[in-house]
Structure formats: structure tokens, C-alpha cells
Write a structure and sequence with these properties.
By secondary structure, this protein is mainly alpha-helical. It has one domain. 68% of the residues lie in helices and 0% in strands. It has 8 helices and no strands. α5 packs across α6 and α6 crosses α7. The radius of gyration is 15 Å and the shape is globular.
Length: 141
């Protein structure tokens, strides 16, 4: 009996959350759009982590425990993408700025009010086709 989420499930959740965030933004629901946008990035990183887990192997407890966080910087480290992130930031100033915006997200945003402008820049940093965080992560999942 399998437990947990499969990589494909996490990929679907990432896309669904960003799609929902964009719908909410278009309806003027900026705080919820911001909140869900961050979850899209979290699920995308967790899809990268799922790809690292070997079949028929019980992962190290510390590794497993580190997956259960909402901290995007921690998830970058656990996913093994730290060096790739540094390379991308060094070669693409717009991506570097976008990661700077996105990496400040936390699940605590659910308790905050976000305005249109802040949410617009946040979602743009996530989805920008050429310099966005989510398209970059998708290269590794």
C-alpha cells in the first residue's frame, strides 16, 4: 500500500495552485492569490524532492523530516538545487530578483493582507516565462 504524494501529484498540485492564484488575482482576491502562489512553488520543489527518493529504500529520517516544511529556502537545499539556483541567479539578474521576491513567502502569509501591486509582482516572479521561479523549477522535476 502506497502512502503520501507521488511526484506527478505534486506537479499537478503546483500547476493547480498557480492557476487558482491567477484566477483569484483576476477576481481581486489578492491575499489568497499571494498565499496560493507560494504553495505552487512549495509543491514544485517537493516534486523535485520526490524524484530524489529511491524505490525500495527507506530514506534517512533527517531527510524525511526536512521535507515537511513550508520554507522555500530549506526546500531548495533538500531538493539538491542549491548549486543550480546559484548558477541561475549569477547568470540571470531578473531571475535573481524574482527568487528574492518568492523566497520570502511563508505559510504565515495566510494571516496577512496583500494588496494588488504586491501580489502582482509576486505572481509575476513565480510565472514569468523567461525569468520565473516556477518555469525554472520545472526544468528539474
Amino acid at each position: 500500500m502506497a502512502h503520501g504524494l507521488k511526484k506527478a501529484d505534486l506537479q499537478t498540485l503546483a500547476q493547480t495552485k498557480v492557476d487558482d492564484a491567477l484566477l483569484l488575482f483576476d477576481r481581486g482576491r489578492f491575499s489568497n492569490a499571494y498565499y496560493l502562489g507560494g504553495y505552487a512553488v512549495e509543491f514544485a520543489l517537493k516534486a523535485c524532492i520526490a524524484a530524489r527518493i529511491e524505490t525500495d529504500t527507506i530514506p534517512d529520517k533527517k531527510f524525511v523530516t526536512s521535507i515537511f516544511t513550508h520554507d522555500l529556502v530549506t526546500l531548495i537545499n533538500v531538493s539538491g538545487l542549491s548549486n543550480e539556483l546559484k548558477k541561475q541567479e549569477n547568470s540571470d539578474d531578473e531571475f535573481h530578483a524574482n527568487w528574492g521576491i518568492v523566497s520570502k513567502w511563508s505559510e504565515q502569509k495566510r494571516y496577512e493582507v496583500s494588496d494588488r501591486s504586491t501580489t502582482h509582482y509576486f505572481l509575476h516572479a513565480i510565472i514569468d516565462q523567461y525569468h520565473g521561479v516556477l518555469p525554472w523549477i520545472k526544468n528539474f522535476w
